[in-house]
Design goal:
The structure is a homodimer. The first copy, chain A, is mostly beta strands. Chain A is built from 4 helices and 15 strands. The interface between A and B is medium-sized, with 21 and 20 residues.
Chain lengths: ~190, ~190
Amino acid sequence: MYKVPSGISNKHLHVSERDLKILFGENHELTCKKMLKQPGQFACEETVDLAGPKGTLKRVRVLGPVRPETQVELSLTDARALGITAPVRESGKLEGTPGLTLIGPEGTVELDHGVIIALRHVHLSDEEAAEAGVSDKQMIRVKVEGERGLVFDNVLVRAGKAHSAEFHLDTDEGNAAGLDNGVMCELLP
Amino acid sequence: MYKVPSGISNKHLHVSERDLKILFGENHELTCKKMLKQPGQFACEETVDLAGPKGTLKRVRVLGPVRPETQVELSLTDARALGITAPVRESGKLEGTPGLTLIGPEGTVELDHGVIIALRHVHLSDEEAAEAGVSDKQMIRVKVEGERGLVFDNVLVRAGKAHSAEFHLDTDEGNAAGLDNGVMCELLP
């Protein structure tokens, strides 16, 4: 039996160099507020407002470092509040996704695509994947114990040297399972 | 294999006769907007605002008919927005639950208990329960197919003549499973 700690992702966004400059100013650099468990990834001091046809979500956190493309990760609850229909997607697979308006302290970006509901996934280093008996891109199940226990199907494995053992899911999924952060969950290959 | 249709419950409340009078006026009676699948149950035209220490949820729907005790059913997402910590409970088991403020057009009720996260459950008539091979108060699992497929553990069976086949879960649970209303879900006794 192989277990990994849960990591529940609240709504957040990754920004491109171009959008960072528009939102926060020409020479702005992202400020690390807290390092995350995935190597090199960090939560930033910076936040932006997200505006959709039905509503606005205020002060949504930026995660660093900058990426080639801006990507907004919402729960289905968030997407409904904004009035957007976003697909469940793996990070970086942004073709055909909807956009929204990003409002920063220095400027506004009309994003024409990049909004996703993140596909739940398990990060593992190469060594951890070998120990767990799973491989990169495999779809597995993950079991959560407790009062709201359940077994998630269709959980993507992301294994490699940029990864560290953690089960990433969104706030809807965390709430449905009654999960807090850092709770050990069993992988079912 | 026995399947029942999903019924996703948004936040709502049931009101006592006493609280109905305070919220909507002395001689007010609940107005049916739409009959629900469970026999005799209906969504009302009436709504109230719910206020907690951290926020307010506007226009939350009342379900009829009136009940002996007022009961507010939220998702964990809703409870966090209000700043309330509510337990997962079976309907009617309200001992030790938190309260909040109900704001109606004619008056305000300071509820001292009655707020729950509803325990997910399957309604079945006696005949349906017999056919499915389950009995009232049994805890079973329910399987949801699809892109966000999963198996919910700890699903309560509520069987009897006041019930009709339907799998009730809240919006967090529905979102986590990528479910719409009326999707057939398999019972796993």
